[in-house]
Amino acid sequence: MLTWSAILELSSGLPEIEESTSYGTPALKVRGKLIARLWEDGETLVLRVGPEREALMLAEPEKFFTTAHYENYPWVLVRLARVGADELRELLTEAWHLRAPRRLAARLEDEAD
């Protein structure tokens, strides 16, 4: 199972990523905007997603799910025991892109080129 330390390492290359807290749990933010947080059970990650949320949950319900609390919000719950490091890195990068200001996102794209 991926730990919070592993999540920090996976996200460490994202510009201006900051470790914080949200609802009393460890969280990741970009310029103060939440992209992910550890759920209270310590085994699940609450992750910002785009319109692909439903597709993720339908394709791999053992890995991705939601609760009534998150039903109308752009968040998905990720079972850390079921997701691989490479996949989670991609998901964290997507979440970062959703929340980062355009100029900052462009900086990451420029660094990749």
Q: Per the principal axes of the C-alpha atoms, what is the gross shape?
A: globular
SSE-based structural type:
alpha+beta
Number of helices: 4
Poorly predicted residue ranges: none
Annotation, overall tally of beta strands? 6
Helical coverage, percent range: 25-40%
Determine the strand fraction and express it as a percent band: 25-35%
The end-to-end distance, rounded to whole angstroms, is 32 Å
Q: Give the class-level CATH name.
A: Alpha Beta
Mean pLDDT: 94
Characterize the quaternary organization of these chains.
Answer: single chain
Number of domains: 1
Using only C-alpha atoms, the radius of gyration works out to 13 Å
How can the largest sheet be summarized? Answer: 6 strands, antiparallel
Task: Record the strand order, biggest sheet.
Answer: 1-2-3-4-6-5
SSE ordering: HEEEEHEEHH
Just name the CATH architecture.
Answer: Alpha-Beta Complex
